Recover the amino acids of this structure.
């Protein structure tokens, strides 16, 4: 079940949407603006298009967390490693079930890519 994000035109799996809305509110309180989203859920056709357009920067179609509605690509500062926004995300996102996967720190380096794990937030309680 996909649910829309506050950012028009984007959606995620229902539980990921709820967690993202909470993360977004904490981000808004800190930075005075909502998170900037460039990508979220992708249909299989959309994932195929990204995969063939940007080889090495997209998961094999059918294996992407974007296709499962469990990943977002962010902008507004978060996409720059070391920025105040990126560091805030590293420090705070796990409280809401979101994380920057280890592969995204190196090969390929994707500071903008964040994923949702429903178990993550409960591990921090």
């Amino acid at each position: 079940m996909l649910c829309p994000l506050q950012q028009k035109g984007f959606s995620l799996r229902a539980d990921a949407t709820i967690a993202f809305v909470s993360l977004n509110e904490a981000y808004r309180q800190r930075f005075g603006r909502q998170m900037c989203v460039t990508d979220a859920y992708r249909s299989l056709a959309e994932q195929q298009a990204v995969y063939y357009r940007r080889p090495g920067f997209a998961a094999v179609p059918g294996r992407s967390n974007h296709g499962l509605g469990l990943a977002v690509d962010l902008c507004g500062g978060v996409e720059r490693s070391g920025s105040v926004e990126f560091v805030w995300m590293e420090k705070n996102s796990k409280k809401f079930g979101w994380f920057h996967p280890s592969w995204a720190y190196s090969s390929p380096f994707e500071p903008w890519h964040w994923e949702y794990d429903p178990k993550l937030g409960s591990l921090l309680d």
In short: The CA atoms of residues 5 and 21 lie 7 Å apart.
